[in-house]
Amino acid sequence: MSTETAPVSVTEVLSSSWKIDGLTIKNRFVLSPMAVLQPTKEGSPSEQTIAFLTTRAKGGAGLLIIGGTVATESGYAEAPFQPLMRFDHDRFIPGLRKMVDAVHACTVPIFAQIFPAFGAMGVPGKGRSTRAASPKPVRMAAPRLPHGMYIPGGRTNPTPEEITKAEILEVQQETVAAVVRAKAAGFDGIEIGAHMRYLYSSFLSPRTNWRTDEYGGSPENRARFLTDTIRAIRAEVGMDYPVGVRMSVNEHLPDGQGPEGFAEVMAFVAKEGLGYIALTDANYESMDDNLPSSSGQMLAHSEPQIFRKHLPDVPFLLSNTYDPQQAAQAITDGYADGIMLARQMLADPEFPNKVLKGRQEEVVWCDHDNSCLRRLILNVPVRCHLNPAMGREAALAGVEEPLSAKLKRPVEAMLIAAAGSPSLMGIADKLASAKAAKDAKK
Question: Nearest 5 degrees, angle CA 56-CA 59-CA 60?
C-alpha cells in the first residue's frame, strides 16, 4: 500500500472560500497593501487610485487591502513620502466611500490598513521629533538591501525619542477614531500596521523596546500598546467586523527577535479578538529578507509553522509565497489561509484569474528587479517596468493625467535608471564611504 501524499490541487485550494471574522472571502488571493495608489495631494482617493484597485479586483483577487495610508495628524506630518491617503479627519470619508463603492461594484471586499505613525522611519520637523518605544535608530545599508536597491554609504535615520504614556494614549485614541471612519466609509474590515520599524512594531521586540514601565520588559508588557488598541477597536466595531494586524515575525538580525518571541507576544494580542495576522518577514535593517527574489522564504524559515504552534486558531495571511503550488500546499498544511500578493500584482493584475483558470503559462512573472521600490524611495509615482499600464490605469481608461506628472517623466526616468545601476551606485558607495571615513577621523 502506497504512503505517498496525493498531490494538492492548486486551483481547487486557491479558489476555495474562507472567512475572516464575519466576512466570507471568495478565494485565497489577497492584494497586499502598498504605497502605490497615487491619491490626491490633499489625501483623498484619486481616479487613479480607484482605477488601480478595480483593475486588481477584476483581475481575480478575493480581497484588497489598501496601503499608503495614515491615521493620525502627527503621522501625516512625519511621513517620509507623499501623498498619503488620510483617515485622520471626517472630511475624508466621502472620498473613501466613493473608492469603496467602486471596488464593491466588482463584488470584492476591501480593507483599510490603519497606519498610526512611522516611528523610527519618520522624518522629524521643526520642534517635532519622531517617536518610538525607545531611542533606537534605523540603519539601512549593504549587504542587507534587496536586489536592485542601493544606498551609497548606507543611511542612518534620525534617532526617535521615547514616546510618553500620554502620547501612547493619544495615538491609540486617534487610531480608534480612524477605524470608526473606515467603517463609516464602508470598508469591510481594517488592518493595524505593526510591522517593519514603524511605531507599533517598535514595542514588540526587546531589540527596539528598552522600556522599564508597563510597556516594556515581558512579552505581555511589550504587547500592551497593541493589545489595548485592539480591545478599544473591538469596543467600537464589535466582534464580527474583521480586524487584523500586520507584523514582522523575524528580525533576521544577530541581536534581533525570532518567530518564537514574536508569536509569544502576539498570543496576548490575539486574546482580544484578531480576525487574522498578516505575516511579513524582517524589517528595514534586513530588507534582503523582507523582499526576497524567490517564493516561499518564510516557509523555509519555518515562521508560519512556529506561529501556528502558538496561535492555532487565528487565520494567517502569508507574504512572499506567490508560487501557486507552494501557496496551495501551505494552505493545505494549515500554515496559511490567505496568500498576499504585492509586487506580483503590479507586474500582472490578472495573476489570480490566470492561476485559477489554469493559464499559468500566460502569467507575467515579477523579476524582482525592484524598480517599483526605487521609485517609492525617490518619492516619484510607482511604476512597473514589466507592466506599462501600472500606475496609468486611469489615463488608459480615459481619465486625463495631470500635466505636471507628464512633465516629470524624463527626470524620473533618469533618476530611476541611475538608482538601479550597479556600476554608478558602486562608485557612489565608494565615494560616500570614503567621505564618512574621512569625517570620522576629524
Answer: 105
Q: Of 228, 230, 333, which is closest to residue 276 (Cα–Cα)?
A: 230
Pairing of strands 155-156, 139-140: antiparallel
What Cα–Cα distance (Å) separates residue 20 from each residue in 34, 60, 321, 403? Answer: 21, 18, 20, 42
- What's the pTM? 0.91
Phi, psi (deg, nearest 5) at residue 218? -70, 160
Identity of residue 322:
Y
Over residues 417-433, the pLDDT tens digits come to: 545 545 445 544 555 55
Give 350-387 pLDDT, tens digit per residue: 999 999 999 999 999 999 999 999 999 888 899 999 99
**d(C-alpha 229, C-alpha 292), whole Å:** 31
The amino acid that residue 356 corresponds to is L
Question: Which residues are within 8 A (CB) of 114 and not within 5 positions of it... i.e. 6 or more apart?
Answer: 69, 71, 87, 175, 178, 179, 182, 190, 191, 192, 193
Identify any residues that bridge with 125 across adjacent strands, giving them in sequence order: 128
Taking residues 53-61, what's their average pLDDT?
98
- Residues 6 or more apart whose CB falls under 8 angstroms from that of 97 comprise 185, 186
Task: Check residue 399 and report its DSSP letter.
Answer: P
